[in-house]
Write a structure and sequence with these properties.
Blueprint: H1 12-18, H2 24-31, E1 39-43, H3 49-55, E2 60-65, H4 68-72, E3 80-84, E4 97-103, H5 111-121, E5 122-133, H6 140-153, H7 162-166, E6 177-178, E7 185-191, H8 193-200, H9 204-213, H10 218-227, E8 237-249
Parallel strand pairs: 1-2, 1-4, 2-3, 4-5
Antiparallel strand pairs: 5-8, 6-8, 7-8
Length: about 250
């Protein structure tokens, strides 16, 4: 089985502060295809963003992650049970869940082993949703600056798994009955420059850069945005994260 990578225990508190939240419309679209709302599993839950949304609909949400530090920062709700577990090997009973979700994480998994675990713990007809977002957009000038930072400044510090994000999960093995979503989705947020800086600080590539080079590459990037007038000191910009996801159903 593929060795576990934990790139996200570093700055775990910043994930709760700076990572964008998934829209309710996305959850509603997924729930259209779920037969019963008793139990779901949010795998690699991180700080519990998806688990919180699902808890409004399901009787019980099991939320797992490999990072204890991430789980310590997770959102607490009465019907969410958090536990430490790798995605590919859990202690859940066979045929237990009606919905299984993974937000911004499945690219790190051993896909063959995870898919086998999904088939084991999901009920017949269980829906599986792999959700992610890629690079953000706002305006042409900013987008160009960000693309240079993403591909040149920190490009070599991305793990190989990042290619799955860049490819919008099309290359992720998905041996399930495909469900076509009814529409496209995006995360839209209004951010200050300080929030942008906090968000970029959660990137695994940035933290690898810092570990090797002993300085934070986000600082000079932010200063370039300011000095060029691309982002004014008190400006709030509308940021768009296009969402992509694979949605399917387990047949037993």
């Amino acid at each position: 089985m593929k060795q576990v990578k934990d790139n996200f225990s570093v700055r775990s508190a910043d994930y709760s502060k700076f990572r964008p939240e998934y829209p309710h419309e996305l959850i509603n679209e997924i729930l259209k295809h779920v037969d019963r709302l008793d139990r779901c599993w949010d795998c690699a839950t991180g700080n519990g963003q998806l688990a919180k949304l699902l808890s409004s609909h399901f009787e019980q949400v099991e939320a797992t992650d490999i990072s204890e530090k991430q789980l310590n920062e997770a959102i607490r709700m009465p019907n969410i049970h958090y536990s430490i577990s790798r995605a590919e090997q859990t202690t859940f009973p066979d045929s237990h869940f009606n919905l299984i979700t993974v937000g911004q994480a499945v690219h790190w998994f051993d896909h063959e082993a995870f898919n086998q675990e999904v088939k084991r713990v999901g009920k017949n007809g269980c829906v599986i949703g792999l959700i992610a977002y890629g690079l953000m957009f706002t305006d042409d000038t900013f987008d160009e600056f960000l693309w240079s930072f993403y591909t040149e400044t920190i490009g070599e510090y991305w793990d190989a798994e990042r290619k799955f994000i860049d490819d919008a999960y099309r290359a992720i093995p998905f041996p399930f009955e495909q469900i076509s979503p009814g529409q496209d989705f995006a995360i839209n947020v209004d951010w200050t420059l300080s929030h942008l800086q906090g968000y970029l600080g959660t990137w695994s590539s940035v933290n690898k850069f810092i570990k090797k080079n002993r300085f934070d590459p986000v600082e000079p990037f932010i200063q370039k945005l300011l000095s060029s007038g691309i982002w004014l000191p008190n400006e709030v910009k509308r940021i768009r994260f296009p969402l992509f996801f694979r949605l399917g159903r387990i047949s037993k």
